[in-house]
Amino acid sequence: MKSVLITFDQAYYERIIALLDRLGCRGFTYLERVQGRGSKTGDPHFGSHAWPSMCSSILTVVDDSKVDPLLDTLHKMDLQTEQLGLRAFVWNIERTI
Q1: Could you tell me which residues come within 8 angstroms of residue 10 by beta carbon, excluding any fewer than 6 positions away?
Q2: What is the rounded distance in angstroms from the CA atom of residue 35 to the CA atom of residue 43?
Q3: For site-directed labelling of 55, which of 39, 48, 82, 96 has its Cα 20 to 30 A away?
Q4: How far apart are CA 44 and CA 50, in angstroms?
Q5: Percent helix, strand, coil in the chain (nearest 5)?
Q6: Tell me, what's the pLDDT at 55?
Q7: Can you give the pLDDT at residue 48?
Q8: CB contact burial 51-65 (16+ within 10 A = b; e otherwise)
Q9: What pLDDT does residue 11 have?
Q10: Domains of the chain (ranges plus CATH)?
């Protein structure tokens, strides 16, 4: 299993929830009004892909087999509306309780 953090503009909320539901990712934590700064290259800047435009975040646990379909779909969404700065971060889950 992987942990996935998705940061996004509020305009994506319904589409991301529908995607998680379609992939069977039932449990998640929704964080509204997150703040940050970053870019595709790692250099801070304002404008497209600047984190201040990302006002929401979802943290979810995803089966390994569903990570690639999730990321592929999120990437396609980002390409359609790059100015909204959708991002996803994935890491291994070492232990759970």
Answers
A1: 32, 55, 56
A2: 16
A3: 96
A4: 8
A5: 35, 25, 35
A6: 73
A7: 47
A8: bebbbbbbebebeee
A9: 79
A10: 2-92 (3.30.70.120)
What pLDDT is attached to residue 82? 67
Retrieve residue 24's tokens. Answer: 């069977």
Tokens of 44: 């801070």
Per-residue pLDDT tens over the stretch 9-36? 877 889 999 999 999 887 888 887 665 5
- Residue type at 4 in one-letter notation: V
Query: Given the structure tokens 């039932």, which residue do they identify?
Result: 26
Both tokens assigned to 17: 């929830």
Give residue-wise pLDDT tens across range 34-59. 655 555 555 554 444 445 555 788 99
Residues 6+ apart with CB under 8 A from 38: 44, 49, 50, 51, 87
The 87-92 sheet, strands edge to edge? 28-32, 56-62, 2-8, 87-92
pLDDT for 87 beyond 90: no
